[in-house]
């Protein structure tokens, strides 16, 4: 679609209205599209059905304390170039802290730290890996062999429908190396179990996150609750930059006329929001219901979205009357509790009064085994697990707690899923899709969501004959890594970067 920008008006002619972009969904995909298009002389309306922005990366208010509690800890890595660009764009980039090392506490209680050493990528983590105290020397050799095979594979074995667990078994891994090393990294990065994840996604995490660059693996942790970061701060920024943010405004359906041309979006209230461009940035299981049959049948591959599955994440919030965890964050390989984030240390949020107690956020990704269990049972299992690690947990008083299981936390990165992720541009002129589940080349992450929003915004600018590259490139591999692993991201990664030709 091409929309001619109006010619400069005669001094007495009234200005024609600017093109109107309406975005459904105020998660990171919709927010990224709105932020990228703001301040460009367009009219932008962001429609969000909930009373807050941020989508899955948001907080709820604890009625007992009035405090913002995140639905779950959200971590990004320095290889997330588009999320970083988005945060700079909207002025929240100062609200993160970078962790130069990842702390592991092995089953025998020994601490290991993964940090970049002096060697160039992809060998920068070799020193810390060799010093890691939760794997024996033979296990390290096995893991090293597996990593080398994965890195040098260059995508040849991806897309064959094999699970990563199957690939690992074929490449010399044992249940212990799979449990203590491969699961520890991948289950949290991809929110999927090894026996259900695709080889290509696993390779992408290791190559792009841990091998290609020296600092790509470093974590970025928010210093404020998500509800402030992607909620209130974004609402303020968008309003100041001319975006009309309408909360508690559910979209019922995209409207097309009898000729199939886009008209805008019909709200649940019955109001029609007329628009030249529409970005549907809702989760994959909602998108079909927002598209009328006449539009849906023209969008290739839309029927295949029904084959996508979800994967759950459980977040457990624990407020203790005393300090029980001596780390700011820690990974617990081989346990029910996968990650512990100490929010008293990271965000300065004590649990009891100005200087007392400790507030911990626990993350359990791909928490299929917890789905049938009640909150009390999950909390008790988590407390028992933590008490084995830190016996002081048994003596500490639990002041309060929250257990949040998001059943549809992310789309599941099952083998073959890449073939069913649709591009952002659709066959209906002016209609774009966005969301972490669309074709971004990334797993279900905030980075993927922002990429999709940027891709939709890039498409709109191209249609307005103002082409501009909004999507940031992935981190350039360091020189030695480039030589060893291949040259561009397309050769390095089993999953080619999404095609965004506009
Ligand atoms: C528990 C949990 C932990 C996670 N941890 C991490 C992590 O550590 N790192 C990471 O990178 N990613 C993480 N993720 C994934 C990350 O949150 C998502 O990838 C990202 O937020 C998705 O953004 P999105 O905009 O695509 O979708 P969403 O955030 O789902 O946004 C879609 C929005 O559309 C709105 N909507 C739906 N229907 C309508 C309608 N009819 N009208 C108007 N609005 C509508 C919804 O209310 C929602 O706000 C986690 C996710 C969960 C659930």
TrEMBL record:
Its EC number is 1.3.5.5. FAD binds at residue 251. Its cofactor is FAD. Pfam families: Amino_oxidase. Keywords: Oxidoreductase. SUPFAM superfamilies: FAD/NAD(P)-binding domain. PANTHER family: BLR3003 PROTEIN (PTHR42923:SF47), PROTOPORPHYRINOGEN OXIDASE (PTHR42923). This is 15-cis-phytoene desaturase. It comes from Aquisphaera giovannonii. The lineage of its organism: Bacteria, Pseudomonadati, Planctomycetota, Planctomycetia, Isosphaerales.
